[in-house]
Amino acid sequence: MAQRQFEFPKVGLLIPVVVVLLILFAKSTVTVGPGEGGVIFETLGEGINTEKTYGEGFHIVAPWNKMIVRKVRQQSISDEMNVLSVNGLEVKVNGTIWYEPEFENLGSLIKTKGEDYERELLDPAINAAARSVVGRYTPEQLYSSKRDVIEQEILDEVTKLLEGQFLTVKRVLVEDVKLPPTIKQAIERKLKQEQESLEYEFRLVTAQKEAEKVIIDAKGKAESNRILSASLTDKILQDKGIEATVKLSESPNSKIIVIGSGDSGMPIILGNQ
């Protein structure tokens, strides 16, 4: 009995120790999900450790440190910006930009720009690039024919602004350009008139080409007849007539009577049935 009384206190002390160890272990484990990366914030050190980025999977971290997990796959944000065209007209541009943090430099990105680096870094760069590029064009160009060019120019501008900032922009899409209703209607009327003018011009060109074709065909036929007429003599015509008469006389559906000859020397055929 004395031995049992001596063991019970040991068991009672072991349980709290196990509980504490389990809590410390739970606080020391971090799972980085698909498409994510993690960096360590060293509470007793110099803050963000910029030397290593942790990839997907299960990781053990000292309980006094913190793992900051952020998405490192390609992401997108959309925004509507009020910008001025080249003639000072205010337009609204709806756009989407695709970007991704540099995985190896995630620690440097968070250390220099904070965890909310999209708001601190990406938003100002997009707005500055959009204002710079859109300000080069007229409302008509923005509304119709320059969309692809504008997207590429904004991408180039954003890339320059973010150079060396550990954030890569992949693509820019200008989804919509909103103009004041009166300006939009004026542009649409002008575009419609231009389209109708092009259609009318096309019909004129087509008609002219058809007329030229008819003239060429007529000239060709006239020249052919002139050459044929020049080559036909009375002797040739007489021989052709005799050949035709012979073929007609051989037809089973005809009865032919030849009496004398005509003024041209050709036989006179009577009695066709």
| Termini Cα gap | 149 Å
Full CATH superfamily name of the largest domain: Band 7 domain
Give the class-level CATH name of the largest domain.
Alpha Beta
For the record, the count of structural domains works out to 3
Question: Widest sheet: strand order?
Answer: 3-2-5
- Give the H and E element order: HEEEEEEEHHHHEHHEE
**What gross morphology would you assign?**
elongated
Uncertain runs are none
State the helical fraction: 40-55%
> Rg to the nearest angstrom?
46 Å
Q: What amount of the residues lies in strands?
A: 15-25%
**How many helices?**
7
The helix/strand class is alpha+beta
InterPro entries: Band_7, Band_7/SPFH_dom_sf, Prohibitin
Organism: Tenacibaculum todarodis
Pfam family, one: Band_7
Main location: membrane
